[in-house]
């Protein structure tokens, strides 16, 4: 037994009993009403307003830019329980769940409207037909005013962060990659973002440059916005001609101040412009990319170990139910599951967000390094992001179910 | 198919250990988690080329004595083997103001006492006497085993324990004549328990700080996510099942008001015993009120929600050497006194800055480093006019205020190097943890709700048949080890009950 400390004797021995008595007393005189609902607390309510589990929307209006490109105005569907649209940061996207041919397909779309537009009950997304694409064609062919749409909360980190980014952003947009920049421009004009946006907008011809006139008129009334159309296949007055090069960036960048570069466009644009940006020796913090998009042709990478022609069998466990799907080596596990009619979780489809996080129970897989956004411990314990994981053998995986709504 | 021996609700630290332990004992076990990854607070998130630790400062992994139950012992017994880095330094503390100080305290009891003596000459004897009190505490705890011993015996043989357990940390320090500056230094850690040391139970604080000093602060090499995945593996190796994206929306009861199952993912799942890692308030909110006893409701309504945080995660494009930072764990205080730190908490009176690269040089890619700011606040401290529209501006304003204060205090330049930034507030924690008001520590360990009083009335407080609790809201208070240990306690209680019923 330990030695007694004499100095402790000055402390009473009744404190112990008193604190228990105080506890019993406090509980006794308390209310026996049901405990408060979580949403009665402001922190929980704000969390729910910013990040609802699901948003039920309805197509309010359709704007046709061309037969293969339309904008959709989406409003909250009060009948299905969405009273208001979640606020967001310009640059974020929604993930839409689409019932294509009896299967659920989900795809991310940048929000082209501004955060302030949500107060008027509107999200705008703009859809361009992708050759061979499943979702874009289905939306263009099926959506009309009144169509019910199921969407996620706003997601993504392609946002302007004042403590991180330079005061001037060179925006580089290619094709439908203009959509988040339309949100940025409107948010700046409406006072919800505070930075200078110099937008280098690459299109084939002026007539393809959707939103160009609209952004140009925002630029006229707001000194923080500048638009430069960069036309690759034609020439026009007040437009640059050719591709977006390091020289062009230098020409429009501030001369004596740091600047950030934000890129959003097709993968071919990233491949070209990234090489140009490299020659500018910008610090990494000043170069931000929107989602890369789905990864195709892993077999073309130098470190890919097979010929990519095999077809493997993947055993998939979802919430205790087992499925078997076939997966060609050059197809992501996510696409194979979707093709088989399963409904696995996916948001960014670019390896970054982690929403498809799953457990690899057996088998070998290939994950392209450039899109491997896993946590370190995931690699140790055998977890994968199926959206950018390709089978190298028959595999067995455990995939979380979609949350029940 | 939907019948289990045990369903565990929530894969936080407590839930993971509870599920792995009952599965290892051979029971058919299902662990339900509302997120798509395990861990609750014990997780990580990736931004750009950085993987951030969201909550762990340092793990108090070893107990204060080898023969005592400890988190490391639990991990070993479950076969969850996670390599840990052990830190030599306890922390550095900079207290500003006319009677301020800048002191670094070392881990390991002798080194700690040496560093205390250097900072406050002459304090060694009284400080040692304070930490020696862990012996009578351990003796009494060991004697108690599974329950309170005969009160006469407790009073006669364990009077020191009774005296310590009935007083605040500062009362006990005063009785031992610990000099004020030495008290303030030792009490730096109060923020990790959320209650200033003039109220915080002496036994509680002493146990925790002693374990840190003797066991040394430790951390996993790959963020807390590694600890959580190791426990998932232990569960699966033992034949148990974890199901993600499966929020429990309803608790089910039989005719005797005993829990008999839950609804998760729209599906009814049945079990003989249910262990809840989620806070009682949320269980009651998802139960038909007539099954919840009057006393349970009274207790939940009487309790005060504990501490929460604003946290700032920074990925910087320079090394810690280039930045001029050389401490893993730094406390910055505007005032030496814990109570005043608490009272002025939302205005830079206390915050902690961790530089993980000091402990784990490879924690971030070459040429970079990470800083993690922790600002303790209480539920209700957020601005009243916070809205979706001004929330981001609030986060940025908080971040800038604290980063500038840190820059000024340390004479370093952080803002120009920010490559990645993420700011979490009680709203963030409300989103991810679903706790009332984003409370992280469950209920405040203050006044009558200190852990001693909680332990004494445990059986009375948790009176729903077949329902067991674990986690920071349970009797041992917050912290990773408490979560793990209460998970173990719940599992052992469930195993004992199932064995008894099986006979």
Descriptive terms for the model:
heterodimer, A: 405 residues, alpha/beta, Rossmann fold, 3 domains, six-stranded parallel β-sheet, 9 helices, 19 strands, B: 503 residues, Alpha-Beta Plaits, seven-stranded mixed β-sheet, globular
Number of separate domains of chain A: 3
Arithmetic mean pLDDT of chain A: 96
Provide mean pLDDT of chain B, rounded: 94
The helical percent of chain A reads 10-25%
Main pleated sheet of chain A = 6 strands, antiparallel
How many angstroms does the end-to-end distance of chain A come to? 59 Å
Count of extended strands of chain B = 18
DSSP strand (E) fraction of chain A? 25-35%
Order of strands, main sheet of chain A, comes to 4-3-6-1-2-5
* Gross morphology of chain A: globular
How many domains, in number, for the residues of chain B?
A: 3
What does this structure look like?
The complex is a heterodimer of chains A (405) and B (503). In chain A, 21% of the residues lie in helices and 27% in strands. A six-stranded antiparallel β-sheet of chain A has the order 4-3-6-1-2-5, with helices on one face. Chain A has a six-stranded parallel β-sheet with strand order 10-9-8-7-11-12, sandwiched between helices. A five-stranded mixed β-sheet of chain A has the order 14-13-19-15-17. Chain A contains nine helices and 19 strands. Chain A folds into three domains: 103 residues, Beta Barrel (Elongation Factor Tu (Ef-tu), domain 3), CATH 2.40.30.10; 122 residues, Rossmann fold (3-Layer(aba) Sandwich), CATH 3.40.50; 102 residues, Roll (Ubiquitin-like (UB roll)). The longest helix of chain A has 15 residues. In chain B, strands 1, 2, 9, 10, 11, 12 and 18 form a seven-stranded mixed β-sheet that branches. A seven-stranded mixed β-sheet of chain B has the order 7-6-14-15-16-13-17. A two-stranded antiparallel ribbon of chain B has the order 3-4. In chain B, strand 6 and strand 7 form a beta hairpin. Chain B has three domains: 211 residues, FAD/NAD(P)-binding domain, CATH 3.50.50; 101 residues, no CATH class; 112 residues, Alpha-Beta Plaits. At the A-B interface, helix 1, helix 2 and helix 9 of A face strand 3, helix 5, helix 7, helix 8 and helix 11 of B.
């Amino acid at each position: 037994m330990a030695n007694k400390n004499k100095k402790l004797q000055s402390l009473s021995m009744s404190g112990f009993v008193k604190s228990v008595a105080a506890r019993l007393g406090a509980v006794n005189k308390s209310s026996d009403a049901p405990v408060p609902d979580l949403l009665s607390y402001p922190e929980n309510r704000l969390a729910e307003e910013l990040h609802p589990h699901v948003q039920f929307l309805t197509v309010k209006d359709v704007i046709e830019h061309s037969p293969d490109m339309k904008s959709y105005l989406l409003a909250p569907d009060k009948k299905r329980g969405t009273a208001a649209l979640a606020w967001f940061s310009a640059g974020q996207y929604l993930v839409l769940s689409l019932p294509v041919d009896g299967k659920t397909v989900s795809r991310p779309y940048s929000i082209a409207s501004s955060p302030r537009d949500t107060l008027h009950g509107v999200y705008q997304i703009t859809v361009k037909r992708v050759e061979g694409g499943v979702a874009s064609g289905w939306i263009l062919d099926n959506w009309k005013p009144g169509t019910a749409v199921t969407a996620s909360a706003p997601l993504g980190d392609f946002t302007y962060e004042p403590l991180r980014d330079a005061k001037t952003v060179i925006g580089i947009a290619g094709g439908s990659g203009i959509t988040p920049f339309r949100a940025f421009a409107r948010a700046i004009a409406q006072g919800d973002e505070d930075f200078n946006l110099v937008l280098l907008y690459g299109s084939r011809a002026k007539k393809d440059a959707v939103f160009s006139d609209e952004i140009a008129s925002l630029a006229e009334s707001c000194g923080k916005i500048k638009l430069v159309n960069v036309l690759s296949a034609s020439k026009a007055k007040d437009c640059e001609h050719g591709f977006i090069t390091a020289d062009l960036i230098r020409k429009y960048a501030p001369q004596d101040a740091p600047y950030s570069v934000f890129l959003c466009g097709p993968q071919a644009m990233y491949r070209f412009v990234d090489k140009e940006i490299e020659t500018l020796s910008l610090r990494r913090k000043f170069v931000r990319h929107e989602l890369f998009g789905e990864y195709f042709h892993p077999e073309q990478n130098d470190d890919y170990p097979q010929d990519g022609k095999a077809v493997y069998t993947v055993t998939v466990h979802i919430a205790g139910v087992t499925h078997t799907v076939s997966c060609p080596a050059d197809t992501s596990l996510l696409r194979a599951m979707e093709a088989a009619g399963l409904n696995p979780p996916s948001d960014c489809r670019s390896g970054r967000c982690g929403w498809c996080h799953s457990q690899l129970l057996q088998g070998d897989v290939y994950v392209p390094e450039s899109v491997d956004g896993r946590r370190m411990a995931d690699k140790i314990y055998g977890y994968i992001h199926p959206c950018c994981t390709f089978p190298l053998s028959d595999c067995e995986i455990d995939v979380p179910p979609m949350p029940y709504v | 198919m939907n019948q289990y021996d045990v369903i565990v609700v929530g894969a936080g630290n407590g839930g993971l250990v509870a599920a792995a332990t009952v599965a290892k004992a051979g029971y058919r076990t299902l662990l339900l988690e509302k997120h798509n990854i395990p861990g609750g607070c014990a997780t990580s998130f990736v931004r750009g080329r950085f993987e951030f630790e969201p909550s762990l400062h340092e793990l108090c992994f070893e107990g204060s004595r080898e023969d005592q139950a400890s988190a490391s012992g639990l991990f070993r017994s479950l076969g969850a083997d996670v390599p840990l880095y052990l830190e030599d330094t306890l922390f550095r503390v900079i207290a500003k103001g006319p009677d301020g100080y800048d002191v670094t305290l070392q881990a390991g009891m002798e080194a700690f006492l040496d560093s205390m003596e250097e900072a406050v000459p002459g304090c060694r004897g009284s400080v040692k006497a304070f930490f020696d009190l862990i012996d009578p505490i351990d003796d009494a705890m060991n004697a108690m085993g599974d329950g309170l011993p005969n009160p006469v015996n407790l009073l006669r043989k364990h009077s020191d324990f009774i005296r310590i357990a009935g007083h605040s940390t500062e009362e006990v320090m005063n009785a031992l004549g610990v000099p004020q500056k030495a008290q303030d230094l030792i009490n730096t850690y109060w923020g990790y328990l959320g209650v200033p040391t003039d109220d915080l139970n002496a036994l509680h604080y002493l146990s925790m700080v002693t374990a840190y000093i003797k066991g040394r602060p430790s951390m996993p090499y790959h963020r807390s996510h590694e600890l959580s995945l190791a426990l998932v593996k232990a569960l699966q190796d033992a034949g148990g099942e974890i199901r993600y994206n499966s929020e429990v929306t309803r608790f089910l009861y039989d005719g005797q008001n005993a829990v008999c199952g839950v609804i998760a993912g729209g599906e009814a799942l049945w079990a003989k015993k249910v262990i809840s890692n989620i806070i009682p308030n949320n269980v009651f909110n998802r139960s038909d009120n007539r099954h919840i006893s009057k006393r349970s409701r009274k207790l939940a309504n009487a309790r005060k929600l504990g501490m929460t945080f604003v946290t700032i995660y920074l990925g910087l494009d320079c090394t810690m050497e280039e930045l001029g930072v050389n401490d893993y764990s730094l406390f910055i205080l505007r005032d030496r006194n814990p109570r005043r730190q608490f009272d002025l908490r939302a205005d830079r009176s206390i915050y902690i800055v961790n530089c993980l690269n000091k402990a784990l040089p490879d924690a971030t890619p070459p040429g970079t480093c990470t800083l993690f700011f922790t600002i303790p606040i209480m539920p209700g401290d957020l601005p009243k006019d916070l809205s979706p529209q001004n929330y981001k501006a609030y986060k940025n304003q908080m971040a800038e205020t604290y980063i500038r204060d840190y820059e000024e205090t340390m004479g370093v330049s952080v803002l120009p190097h920010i490559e990645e930034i993420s700011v979490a507030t009680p709203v963030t924690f409300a989103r991810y943890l679903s706790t009332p008001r984003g409370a992280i520590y469950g209920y405040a360990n203050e006044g009558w709700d200190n852990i001693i009083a909680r332990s004494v009335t445990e059986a009375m407080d948790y009176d729903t048949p077949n329902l067991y609790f674990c986690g920071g809201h349970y009797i041992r208070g917050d912290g990773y080890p408490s979560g793990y240990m209460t998970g173990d306690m719940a599992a052992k209680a469930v195993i004992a009950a199932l064995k008894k019923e099986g006979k």
